[in-house]
Amino acid sequence: MVFDFGVAHRNYVRFNPHGRVLVIAGFGNLSGVVDLWDRKKLKKMCSIDGHGTSFCEWSPDGRHLMTATLSPRLRVDNGIRIWHYSGTLVFRQEFKELYQVDWRPANIANFPQRSALSPAPPGIAAAASPGSSAGAGSDSASTASVSAAAPPKPAGAYRPPHARTREATGNGAPRSLSDMAERVTFGMSSPARSKPVPGSAAAAAAAAEKKARRRNRKATKGDGSDEESDAPSVAAAATDSEGRPPASSSSSADIEALRRIRVLKKKIGQIDVLTKKRDDGETLAANQLVKIDTRSLIESEIAELNASLTKKEAPAEP
Fold it and tell me: Which of 10, 143, 192, 220 could form a disulfide with 26 if both were Cys (CB 3.0 to 4.6 A apart)?
């Protein structure tokens, strides 16, 4: 082994045309860190941030490295950046959509290798304006884009493309819980609630207001006219045409009786299964034998429930 570059998450290795500088980077699903190494001195020169890079290539002069974010790999933050191998950013340009970028072909013989690496040139502190020319010496980058360059984006928190569109147009309510969470997270709007949370102060105030409106309606109805108008309907609801109480008054008790009968009949079926096993000579547990002995009690209870239901259904004597 000649040299160990160490352990790191990297998936891209490329020498510059002269073989003097080596780039080791991690793109794709990695963090985008780009390490530049001096192969002659076996020393790391610098590290740059290439987050979101989908294209990386050396210039023909071997002194500049271009990183680019392209569509459709990424639909946001498309653009190119040109770095000096000292780690200085010398050119940057953003695009709304950028699909391809490459260096203009040039003969490497026009850029002889120097004995010492070039010093760092003046860098840039802000994004280059649209339409500006490359500032990387004699090298230039030819780009193919389907749309004009977009103005530089203001610094701030990252927002997904659909969230940016809604923020700009201000249309529509949240389409899902995740959509609402995004809006709250990115400060686009507060969560809309159609009803107050039960138990909150807002819910208590809404309930008090509803009760007050109900009392006001009752107070404006008059003095007794409502009671007189309601009397016939109450009398009609008390008995049916044959003088019997309506079925709804005893429906809950009948439902409980029918439910109990179904449970008891299920137990009878289980007892029948245990009885057959006992008759076939199979040894039963003590609790199973006790369950068989309760058959008569269960049958008596079923008979009583059926009798009560039959009595309720019988017509009244004239």
Answer: 10
